[in-house]
Amino acid sequence: MAGSITANNKCIQFSPSQFTGNSQTISYDVNIEGYSKAIGEVITTSALVSSNGGEAIIPVVIKISTEVMKTSAGIAINTLKDFYQFAKKSPKEARMLFNTEAFKRWLGRIEFEHMDMFQLMQNDKSEERALDNFFILTNQKKKTDAFIDNETVDVTILPQDENKTMGTIHIKKSDGGYMEGRVLVEGGAPWLTLHTDTIRSKDFDEHGEMEIFYTIDPMHIHCRAVYDTIALHAETTTRVDVNVKRLPPCTIRMSSESYYFADDGYVDVYNNTTKDLKLEIETKDNFVKFEGKSYFISKNGRIPFKIKMPLIQQKQMDFKKKPYVETEIYIKIYTPDGMRKRTEKFLVGYSLL
């Protein structure tokens, strides 16, 4: 068998255009010069095959599409958006592809406007930063940010505790891109130390999260409460307040703020130290009566008392139209560091509830 193949449109050419024998491979070239090259445009034509065995018409349809680049896994990359989506799923392979001549040629074929900037990015020592800047340049993403995820940090220290306390600040990234940030103690508190002052993308786990360790040193805390702020400066700035409270040797709570003329009450004492405390209690008025004057508190203790106001004193209050009177108890607290004094005030009279 012998024959020829002829295109009905100059946009396609066959080689060879003549054939003989029962089997022949014919290649074709497409040239769309003169067409608009608009993405999605379709050119419809045909080819005529003539031979001594007869004639046949082969339909030919040419569709204009973008330049295609394929990854090592055969994934087709048609647009910059395709490349960005691929990088989110396979960041390591995307960084390797970004630095190849094939990628550079593909950018040229799609008429990328910022080839000068691209070449500068290829010279960046950090491949991760270069690729992230490329996506920012091409409006595929915004700059990656990081932020502190804690609301506040509250730490309580026992009265005589001199051991350092360690904790963590939780930090999250806004996306999987490259970022750098600085972390610092804004007030420069000597009792608060950060274990690092710089964070980078490599510090985050696969979920875009990381922890920064801090240490609180009670030896530099010389008052009942202190605070400072940890700040993370990334694309934006986020902060977390660190509040440290040193407990007093003991915490004292009255059972109520007011009592009737004849009533029962108690004083709760919470020992915040590791040693026994001695308390001595005196009253301002004789109608407040405790069972003893000295008490030893190992951990927690409840000290009962009674209110027994004489009837004549009640009558005097009625005469003066005073519904209640204020009274006090005086507490001396003996600790390993010395003696402290505390005054508790409360009301006695008609029901104030």
Shape by Cα distribution: rod-shaped
Biggest sheet, in brief? 5 strands, mixed
Oligomeric nature of the chains: single chain
Biggest sheet, spatial arrangement of strands: 10-17-16-12-14
User: So how many helices?
Assistant: 6
Low-confidence stretches: none
Question: What integer value in Å does the Rg equal?
Answer: 42 Å
Helix content: 10-25%
Q: What would you call the structural class?
A: alpha+beta
Number of strands: 26
Q: Could you characterize what this model shows?
A:
The protein has helices at residues 80-89, 91-98, 101-109, 115-122, 127-137, 311-319; strands at 2-7, 12-15, 18-20, 27-30, 42-51, 54-63, 69-70, 76-77, 146-148, 152-157, 165-173, 180-185, 192-194, 198-200, 209-216, 225-233, 237-246, 250-254, 258-259, 262-271, 277-283, 288-290, 294-297, 300-308, 324-335, 338-349. By secondary structure, the protein is of the alpha+beta class. It is rod-shaped, with a radius of gyration of 42 Å. The protein starts with a strand and ends with a strand.
